[in-house]
Automatic annotation (TrEMBL):
Protein name: Phospholipid-transporting ATPase
One Gene Ontology molecular-function label: nucleotide binding
Transmembrane portions of the chain: none
Record-linked Gene3D superfamilies: Calcium-transporting ATPase, cytoplasmic domain N, HAD superfamily/HAD-like
A Pfam family it matches: Cation_ATPase
GO biological process: phospholipid translocation
Cellular component GO terms, alphabetical: plasma membrane
Leader sequence segment: none
Record organism: Cryptomonas curvata
Length: 268
C-alpha cells in the first residue's frame, strides 16, 4: 500500500510502498523499513515509526511517534537539510544529512577520530562505485535553543526580504553544529537507457560532451566511465584547487599539449 498521512494500525510494514519526489529518500526509507524501522505515517506535525526490537530472539514491535518541530530546508548553497524532533521522553533531537564536504566540519568536534576515519573510507569506496553519498549526524538540542531559534524565525518572517536569508542562515547555524556522526548512506544512481550509445553518437559527430556535477570526484569519474565518456584509452588529468590555481594548471596543460599558442589551437 502507498504510505498515507493517516495512521496505519492494520498495515504491516511489508505491505507499505513508499513513494515520494526524491528517489534517494524513497530508497533510504525503504532500506530503514527492511532493517526494522518502518515509517508508518507522516504529516506536518509528526512521524510514526514502527520499531522492531528483539528480546530472547523474539521480535517486539511498537509504533513510536516523533513530534516534528522544525524543518531546516535543503538548498543548493547549504547542501544539507535538518529536522528537529521531540522524541519519546521529551528530549529534543536534531537530525541532519548532507554532502560530505559540508557535513564533515560540523562533525569533527563531537565524533571520535576512528569513527570519522571509517566514514571517510566508506565514502571513498562508495563514491568510487559511482554511488551518491551522504553523511548523517545528530545532536541533542536544549529547550532554550529551540526558543531562540523560533524567535529568529519570527524575526526573519517580519524582516526585509534582503535580510531574511541571512537571518535564516544564522538561525540554522545555531542548531546545525557540534553534530555526532550517525553514519554514511549511499544510493546507486543508475544511468538511463541508451546513455552510452547517445554519448558515443554525439562524440562521433564531433560534438564535445561535458559532465557538470556537484558529486565527488570519484563518483564523477565512475559515471564518466560507465556512460562511455571516458574510454579505456582515455588519459585522465585531475585539476583541482581554488580558481587561480586551477587556471594555472589548465594553462600549463594546454601549453604542454598545444604549445605556447594553445589558446587558438584549443578553441572549439
Amino acid at each position: 500500500r502507498n504510505l498515507s498521512a493517516g495512521a496505519c494500525k492494520d498495515v504491516s510494514a511489508a505491505e507499505l510502498l513508499y513513494t515520494g519526489p526524491s528517489p534517494d529518500e524513497t530508497a533510504l526509507v525503504t532500506a530503514a523499513a527492511a532493517n526494522g524501522f518502518a515509517l508508518m505515517a507522516r504529516d506536518a506535525e509528526a512521524v510514526v515509526v514502527r520499531e522492531t526490537e528483539y528480546a530472547a530472539s523474539m521480535p517486539f514491535t511498537a509504533d513510536v511517534r516523533y513530534e516534528r518541530l522544525a524543518n531546516l530546508e535543503f538548498t543548493s548553497e547549504r547542501c544539507r537539510m535538518s529536522t528537529l524532533y521531540r522524541v519519546p521522553g521529551g528530549q529534543l533531537v536534531l537530525y541532519t544529512k548532507g554532502a560530505d564536504h559540508v557535513m564533515l566540519p560540523l562533525l569533527v568536534d563531537k565524533t571520535p577520530h576512528d569513527t570519522l576515519r571509517k566514514c571517510y573510507d566508506h565514502m571513498q569506496e562508495f563514491a568510487g562505485r559511482g554511488y551518491r553519498v551522504m553523511l548523517a549526524g545528530t545532536r541533542v538540542v536544549e529547550e532554550e535553543e529551540l526558543e531562540e531559534f523560533r524567535d529568529a524565525l519570527e524575526a526573519a518572517s517580519a524582516g526585509l526580504v534582503a535580510a531574511r536569508d541571512e537571518i535564516l542562515q544564522e538561525a540554522y547555524a545555531t542548531l546545525e553544529r557540534d553534530l555526532r556522526c550517525l553514519g554514511v548512506t549511499c544510493v546507486e544512481d543508475s544511468l538511463q537507457d541508451d546513455v552510452p550509445e547517445t554519448i558515443r553518437y554525439f562524440q562521433d559527430a564531433g560534438i564535445r560532451v561535458w559532465i557538470l556535477t556537484g558529486d565527488k570526484m570519484e563518483t564523477a569519474l565512475n559515471v564518466a566511465r560507465t556512460s562511455g565518456m571516458l574510454r579505456p584509452t582515455t588519459e585522465v588529468v585531475t585539476i583541482e584547487g581554488e580558481w587561480n590555481a586551477v587556471r594555472r594548471q589548465v594553462d600549463a596543460l594546454l601549453t604542454a599539449v598545444y604549445g605556447p599558442d594553445h589558446a587558438a589551437a584549443a578553441d572549439p
